[in-house]
């Protein structure tokens, strides 16, 4: 099975903005858009990434690890939902979780705006483990893969982009991973914030996952195979050992898929494709946006040895 991973789309759509919607943290975010971010991210690049994943890479499923919007406005969510609906059989082939930009204000969280727009992509085959927040959700793919969606996004003060997994969700996810229907599958966890400190950030304290150590320990204890995230807009793969047994947890980020202009390719627009077969991660391909004429090209590939039992 091939699973595509995109993140941090930052769709911008300011249709009939209402002034009172900017009497909060959006005032700073809007200024950032005006002077920088709006020039970096492109919906056209997002559409090209999704086309490339579907037609050229032939992925079976697409996982999106948050920040579909810039300011968590209804117009941005509607535009992002329209883009996802263009994917053939999207409701069966796409999984989505929110990022910090999708929970930009307390009003956004209280209204559950993100969940209302993207509910078709957050269905669960194990609904009994959902907390009041709607997370975690679990989706079975083929006979041996489980995709678990977690929420680390929370509203934060101005100039902060931290995340946190609340106690109820953390305990529910641990119980879900221990369920016999999930335990023996190849387990993929989607989360927006990074699980280990980001070495390239000068403001790590204000954008970290507050309880990252606790979340990472839980994933390692329950033998999660792959954790995919966004947030940093930077390519990274990290391998850490499980706390039981001999397996490993791979933690992966491709970057922000929508970036069309960059100097350092590590911060360029990218997506990953994970090749999973017989309960093993065989290969990770990373594709980089080159230009509007060329589109995405393969940039990196990591292949992993498959142990074959002696006859």
Helix content: 25-40%
Distance between the termini: 26 Å
* Global geometry: globular
Looking across the biggest beta sheet, what order are the strands in? 3-2-1-10-11-12
Major β-sheet annotation: 6 strands, mixed
Fourth-level CATH superfamily:
Metallo-dependent phosphatases
**CATH classification class:** Alpha Beta
Q: How many H/I helices? A: 9
Question: Rg to the nearest angstrom?
Answer: 18 Å
Q: Averaged pLDDT, please?
A: 92
User: What is the structural class?
Assistant: alpha/beta
Instruction: Note the beta-strand portion.
Output: 15-25%
Number of strands: 12
Protein traits:
disordered C terminus; six-stranded mixed β-sheet; Purple Acid Phosphatase, chain A, domain 2; 9 helices; 311 residues
Could you explain the architecture of this structure?
This protein has one domain: Purple Acid Phosphatase, chain A, domain 2. 26% of the residues lie in helices and 23% in strands. The longest helix has 15 residues. The C terminus is likely disordered. By secondary structure, it is α/β, with parallel strands linked by helices. It has a six-stranded mixed sheet with strand order 3-2-1-10-11-12.
